[in-house]
């Protein structure tokens, strides 16, 4: 009994408001048994005819998991202790802290049995999933940033998978806006992946510092592998009202997100691209299957049910840059005219009629100030031109 009490107290330290630590302990004790998973527990509830509309789903989950065996209490408590060290809180499906839009349809739809998060608790607000290729083009990253910043500025949450490419561009562009951003991890919270995003002061720390959220359905040390990455896509779809596919090759995970969104009755939009580019395959496939085209933030706002407010793209791109910009006016003009496509540095020097040394110094200042982003394809403005 003392061991049970100690484990319950440890679990209580990570239970979200409204989550019963006894129920959470029962579920965790189930998961540490060989070949037992939280999704297996969901399937057991489905077979037993349990649903969210029946009342207390967390209690039903705990009953399905059974009374925790004495030998499972310490491993379950260690999971909770790891989450606690990381500042993570946890809710079970049907709990007050678990997002209702994600829970809808459980257990027939495969919503996660539990959700663990770091940062601001998941909030009930309009949300847009922005997804696409990890090896995105500069154009794809620019469009993702344009859409994400605009809808987050309008108050909608931007949800994506925390990967490189389109995901990172969407998170970076929205994290300082009123709507904020949510990262859905493809691994446990104790696994630093992607490494550069998970390092100290990396993207994930900045998301949390600006009021965003990192969520995962996985136990803290669950590593990333193709199955967990694919499973993450359905959470992105479940947290969003609208999903926008920016870029993706044939078989892209973005198509899985779009499929999961359609299964949940969400609107799917696709960004048209260059017909010769491999990254256009996924969005063009969706367009052929009936997805609506997304050519500006106004399309996303309409899909959310709001009026298509003026966006940064509506501004005159020939307007002079803000006085505080570290870029020379001609360089800013060239980047604004090309946006969101990047411009190679040598082309920028030629088109702006600037000596290479002066341009490189200005680009360094602009990069430090967060005005431009650089990639192998060149330089682009981080934000849409005004």
Briefly characterize the structure.
This protein is α/β, with parallel strands linked by helices and 386 residues long.
What would your notes on this structure say?
The chain has 386 residues and is of the alpha/beta class. The chain has helices at residues 2-12, 21-31, 38-47, 57-65, 70-85, 100-103, 138-153, 166-174, 195-198, 203-209, 226-239, 253-263, 281-288, 297-304, 329-338, 345-352, 356-368, and strands spanning 88-92, 114-119, 127-131, 157-160, 181-184, 213-216, 242-245, 267-270, 292-293, 372-375, 378-381. The protein is elongated and about 75 Å long.
What layout of secondary structure does this protein have?
Blueprint: H1 2-12, H2 21-31, H3 38-47, H4 57-65, H5 70-85, E1 88-92, H6 100-103, E2 114-119, E3 127-131, H7 138-153, E4 157-160, H8 166-174, E5 181-184, H9 195-198, H10 203-209, E6 213-216, H11 226-239, E7 242-245, H12 253-263, E8 267-270, H13 281-288, E9 292-293, H14 297-304, H15 329-338, H16 345-352, H17 356-368, E10 372-375, E11 378-381
Parallel strand pairs: 3-4, 3-7, 4-5, 5-6, 7-8, 8-9
Antiparallel strand pairs: 1-2, 2-6, 10-11
Helix pairs in contact: 1-2, 1-5, 2-4, 2-5, 3-4, 7-8, 11-12, 15-16
């Amino acid at each position: 009994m003392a061991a049970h009490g100690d484990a319950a107290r440890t679990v209580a330290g990570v239970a979200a408001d409204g989550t019963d630590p006894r129920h959470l302990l029962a579920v965790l004790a189930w998961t540490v048994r060989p070949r037992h998973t939280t999704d297996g527990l969901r399937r057991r509830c489905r077979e037993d005819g349990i649903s969210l509309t029946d009342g207390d789903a967390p209690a039903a989950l705990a009953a399905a998991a059974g009374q925790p065996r004495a030998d499972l209490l310490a491993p379950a408590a260690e999971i909770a202790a790891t989450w606690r060290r990381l500042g993570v809180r946890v809710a079970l499906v049907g709990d007050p802290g678990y997002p209702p839009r994600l829970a809808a349809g459980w257990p027939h739809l495969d919503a996660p049995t539990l959700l663990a998060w770091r940062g601001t608790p998941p909030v009930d607000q309009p949300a847009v999933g922005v997804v696409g290729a990890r090896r995105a083009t500069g154009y794809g990253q620019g469009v993702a940033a344009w859409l994400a910043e605009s809808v987050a500025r309008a108050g909608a949450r931007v949800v994506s998978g925390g990967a490189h490419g389109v995901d990172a561009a969407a998170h970076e562009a929205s994290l300082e806006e009123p709507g904020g951003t949510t990262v859905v991890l493809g691994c446990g919270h104790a696994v630093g992946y992607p490494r550069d995003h998970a390092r100290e002061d990396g993207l994930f720390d900045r998301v949390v510092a600006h009021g965003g959220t990192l969520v995962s359905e996985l136990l803290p040390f669950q590593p990333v592998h193709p199955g967990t990455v694919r499973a993450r896509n359905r959470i992105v779809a479940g947290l969003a009202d609208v999903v926008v596919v920016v870029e993706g090759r044939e078989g892209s995970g973005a198509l899985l997100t779009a499929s999961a969104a359609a299964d949940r009755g969400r609107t799917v939009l696709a960004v048209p691209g260059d017909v010769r580019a491999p990254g256009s395959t996924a969005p063009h496939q969706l367009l052929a299957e009936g997805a609506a085209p997304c050519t500006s933030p106004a399309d996303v706002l309409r899909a959310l049910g709001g009026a298509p407010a003026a966006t940064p793209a509506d501004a005159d791109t020939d307007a002079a840059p803000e006085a505080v910009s570290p870029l020379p006016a001609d360089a800013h003009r060239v980047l604004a005219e090309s946006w969101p496509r990047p411009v190679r540095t040598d082309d920028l020097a030629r088109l702006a009629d600037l000596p290479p040394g002066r341009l490189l110094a200005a680009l360094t200042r602009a990069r430090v100030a967060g005005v431009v982003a650089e990639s192998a394809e060149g330089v682009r403005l981080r934000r849409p031109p005004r």
